[in-house]
Design goal:
Organism: Gloeophyllum trabeum (strain ATCC 11539 / FP-39264 / Madison 617) (Brown rot fungus)
Bound molecules: 2-acetamido-2-deoxy-beta-D-glucopyranose
Protein name: Acid protease
GO biological process, one term: proteolysis
GO molecular function: aspartic-type endopeptidase activity
Shape: globular
Keywords: Hydrolase, Protease, Signal
CATH architecture of the largest domain: Beta Barrel
CATH topology of the largest domain: Cathepsin D, subunit A, domain 1
Structural class: mainly beta
Oligomer: single chain
Length: 361
Amino acid sequence: MASIRWLVFCALACLITVQASHSSSFGLSKRSWEKGQPITVPLALDASGRPVVHVNMHFGLAISTGTGYTMVAGSQCDSCSGVPTYNASKSTTAQSLAGARSVAMLNNTVDGPLYKEDCGMQTMSGGVWAYPNMTIVVANASMPVFSDGVSGVLGLGTNSRQGNFSDTIFGAYLGEDNGATSFQYGMALDAPDNSTNDGGVLHLLSPDGSAYTGNVSWKGVQQASSNADGTGLTSDWIIDLDGWSFAGGSGSISNTQGGSCTVDPYYPNVYIPQNLANEIYGSISGASQISDASAHAIAWTVPCDTKMSFTAVFGSESFTVDQSILVINQGDRCIGGIEGWSDSSLTGYLFGARFLSEVYV
Ligand SMILES: *[C@@H]1O[C@H](CO)[C@@H](O)[C@H](O)[C@H]1NC(C)=O
Ligand SMILES: *[C@@H]1O[C@H](CO)[C@@H](O)[C@H](O)[C@H]1NC(C)=O
Ligand SMILES: *[C@@H]1O[C@H](CO)[C@@H](O)[C@H](O)[C@H]1NC(C)=O
Ligand SMILES: *[C@@H]1O[C@H](CO)[C@@H](O)[C@H](O)[C@H]1NC(C)=O
Ligand SMILES: *[C@@H]1O[C@H](CO)[C@@H](O)[C@H](O)[C@H]1NC(C)=O
Ligand SMILES: *[C@@H]1O[C@H](CO)[C@@H](O)[C@H](O)[C@H]1NC(C)=O
Ligand SMILES: *[C@@H]1O[C@H](CO)[C@@H](O)[C@H](O)[C@H]1NC(C)=O
């Protein structure tokens, strides 16, 4: 972690100043935030390696930049894999909103009615960062999202592709009468790893200057229409990857073309166009293809002593991950952390938690 580096993506939406239309100061007294000091929120890892925040005591929610909505399994969902569920009628602070929301997630949709609820994230100091009147989607049907004890998703996206910015944590915060004109956050993630359940930390309201070294690379977030990212997924955080290189096996591969790159810690690995993944593993002797149905991708088993490094170029900075991140030892076999999309027409990239664990975003 000592060499953790800084890579910043500035979402345009974070600069939007939402007019504070109500002067309620509800919940504000709970925030003892000293300007410039981040609220540090610890992340746990679930069994499938997703970074998880604890909200309102009972709920472990996986973080995702793919959506700005917070979604939780409702108590009427009788097939939500035994995860803790949310029953609005047991809450004294829930307000039912008219209408329902269908939120794209995991190449699928989570459907359900909308509620407003007062939420609070558990912080590192043992306190709670309260964020009242949050819009939540209460799902009534089972989804792969609700598994491994995870009750839902905490969206860290902007809803720029789908939905309403005011329904995001940022929009809600900026809509309060607190004088805030922007909401910044940082992620210092740990790589998904079965030997620990420590997923790193989120820094809310301010990045933590001590969490990174080196130069900052700024990238604008693409404001393209949905699904223009070439990954088949809906996402709010898509930036330009300016190129990459791979070293290992029988030689090195260099790509100066890059492409659209979705950044989302909900997914564990690095996903790239299928032909390029074929090229990478074609250079590694003993690599053999397997399916990764959970991400609609193709993965490869590799010899456990494979040496490889993958360098991604964003603007003037480049960021390298090596075999310590890219060769995943599952006990009985080793798997490469770079995968190819099953759908060979997809041209986009997706960088998940494994890559993000080497940078500060
Ligand atoms: C939700 O809570 C209400 C009030 O306690 C209870 O009557 C109802 O059975 C609960 N619903 C489910 C599906 O558990
Ligand atoms: C789930 O919620 C949606 C939106 O409110 C609704 O259209 C759908 O009928 C509900 N499904 C079930 C099984 O309750
Ligand atoms: C919460 O949001 C709803 C809908 O936007 C609004 O009607 C209500 O006044 C808000 N409540 C508080 C306490 O801000
Ligand atoms: C957007 O969300 C806010 C807060 O939940 C709500 O007050 C507003 O009506 C929503 N706008 C639309 C167009 O849905
Ligand atoms: C930061 O950028 C400057 C100017 O491009 C360069 O001289 C310097 O070596 C960089 N520092 C690091 C730590 O990469
Ligand atoms: C999303 O689902 C569609 C239809 O099932 C499929 O063709 C596409 O490849 C999927 N995309 C991804 C990234 O899984
Ligand atoms: C972690 O353990 C689970 C269950 O044993 C296994 O399915 C999964 O592939 C492992 N993940 C990694 C990254 O080793």
